[in-house]
Amino acid sequence: RQHEAPRRVKRAWVIPPISVSENHKRIPHLLVQIKSDKQQPGGVIYSIKGPGVDEEPLGIFSIDKFSGKVFLNAMLDREENDRYRLRAFALDLGGVTLEDPTDLEIIVVDQNDNRPLFRQDVFTGRVVEGAEPGTCVMTVDATDADDPDTDNAALRYSILEQGAAGMFSINATTGEICTARPGLDRETMGVYNLTVQAADMSGDGLTTTAMAVIYLEDINDNPPEFTAEEFSLEVEEQAAGVDVGKVFVHDKDLAGSPSWLAKFTILEGDPEGAFAIRTDPHTNDGVLSVVKPLDHEVRDRFELTVSVQNERPLEPSVPASPRALATVRVRVRDVNEAPVFRENPRRVSVLEGTPPGTAITTYTASDPDTQQIQTLSYALLYDPAEWLQLDPHSGTVRTKRELLHPSAFLQGGWYIALVLARDDAEPPLSATGTLSIEILEVNDHAPQLQPPAGVLCGRPGRGGTLLLGATDDDRPPHGAPFHFQLSPQHPQLARNWSIARFNVTHAVLAVLAELPEGPYSLPLLLRDSGTPPREQQQLLNVSVCHCGRDGTCLDGALAAATAGTGITLGALMIILGSTILLLVLAALGAARARGRRRALRKGLLQRSRDDMRDNILNYDEQGGGEEDQDAYDINQLRHPELFSPRAKPSLRRDAPLSSGTPLVPRKLPSSPSDIEDFINEGLEAADSDPSVPPYDTALIYDYEGSGSVASPLSSIVSSLTDEDQDYDYLSEWGPRFRRLADLYG
After folding, report:
1. 447-501 confidence digits (pLDDT tens)
2. Residue 3 in this model has a pLDDT that exceeds 50
3. For every residue of 62-110, which 3-state class applies, written as one string?
4. With CB atoms counted within 10 Å of each terminal CB, which end of the chain scores lower, N or C?
5. Is this model's pTM higher than 0.90 or not?
6. Burial degree of 196 (CB within 10 A; 0-12, 13-18, 19+)
7. Where in the chain is the domain with CATH 2.60.40.60?
8. Torsion angle of alpha carbons 355, 359, 365, 370, nearest 10°?
9. What CATH class has 448-545?
């Protein structure tokens, strides 16, 4: 196979790169002439294209189309464009290409037309004081826009100015600044300002400058020192928690740094720890204060030895030096002090019932001002019950009235009073003392039987027991345990009764032999456990009831027995008899009045027998009022057999349960035919019975007034039939009889 040989390019049409210096001022300037070997009759037309010709930036280059000369038409700047690549063309007159396009490269040659520039105007660095030589602090750097491959951009650094010491040096190539010699001392010079320079052409060309600021960092190379060897201060006595004054120090290290902060210590002169010293964080001075009250009379001056050192220890490189010491003299000023009760509170004991004027105690205070002549006076500041009186000069406390239990002013048996002591200084000062008086209990009350009455079954061993209790107004140990016993003056009681202890406050009364039903009065002897013991004989009213099979009282018997313990039988008979007599008289009067009215209005009644049961009764005065209308059962008059020796009167609602039962109950006659004799006998018994309350006397009934809310009172003959009565006339009697008309009309 035949290979085609490479096509030979003519040397005249190959254009080597063309160099031209930037900032060339001779314009236009011939750069090169291109020429084609293919000459045509009539000539060749040349042209160029590319940046600087028909592309931005326009108009920099041009060509003579007939001669092929290429011209520079403007100044070039290498920093903007360091080379241009153009294309050259050769055409005949008809526009036909004679040669293939060829490259035309124009290289812009650099000139040193740019100064170096530092990256910042001020460079900042830090180094500790006392740093060794060669310790690098910082690096400064600059740039140059010229060709870095030429000396136009070859930079060199130098320090133009740093003061007379010459403590720093700079690497000319890298711009690194380091310490040059020892002796950096922040306390001498804390900041160094260096003027650094950068120059191109390896230091011989264009230059620029900047500032390098170097700060020295503090180390603890200076101990604190007192500004004086002695300090004098003054403080009032009895002052605690107050500042006495300051001791001043000086430290050359940086204020506010850990190397500057001072720490103070009291070495001597304060064995009791009355003083304390702290550091003022703002001034670094020592502040002396009192933590315990000082007493001028005990000690009037102190001499303290105080030392100072830094919170942070000194650097090892610093020569050792002793701690700074100073003497602080403190004088204690005398002031008026308040009196003092050495015993506060004062506790004393007094027997209750102590007569007025009895001296209890002498409660005085002392004046700490021994070097001043002063007089103390006393007064009662708090005496809520006004039980006490106080001598204003001697402080002797006496009773003003009897101190008795119980009292609302006692707290757990203690009476609290406040005593005021005052001096006569200007201004006067006072103190308050607490006087606690224990009122000792005296056994002045005997125990009381509670309750004084009871009901029990009369059969031994089957409900024949009664629980007894007692109370005592005295406080322990003069109260319980209580001792119960049958009265020694009545030894016969022991045949039928016994008392056994139940607990410290109760005992059990038991029946020893079967007893008949009825009231019994047992004298008991009660004794407390006080010193000396108090005893008292009291009566126990016992009602023996009718026993059931299980040993309990039957209901009727229990009710009767209970009532018997609250009201005497004689008083009950008197009240019942009086009530019956009044009802009978009222019923007879009403029946006669009704008969006359009916004879006038409707003629004779259909039946000759008058019915007095539902007549209207007017009473002038009722005495007890509605409270007594249900007090007694009138059936007791119709059934006198209920008033047997074994039966007990019913319980009155208005009679207290604590009412005693008479020793010998009055028996009713078996057939009370004569009501007048019965009532007179009851009145005589009631008048001679001291246990009857005043409301158990016979009541006088009279006019009750209009509009009474009481229920209508039936007549004594309400048991008669009324089926043949006509009561229609009641509706004609007016509004007062409207209710009766509704019921019977």
Report:
1. 888 888 988 888 887 667 888 998 887 777 877 898 898 888 888 888 888 898 8
2. no
3. EECCCCCEEEECCCCCCCCCCEEEEEEEEECCCCCEEEEEEEEEEEEEC
4. N
5. no
6. buried
7. 18-109, 117-217, 225-333, 340-440, 448-545
8. 160
9. mainly beta
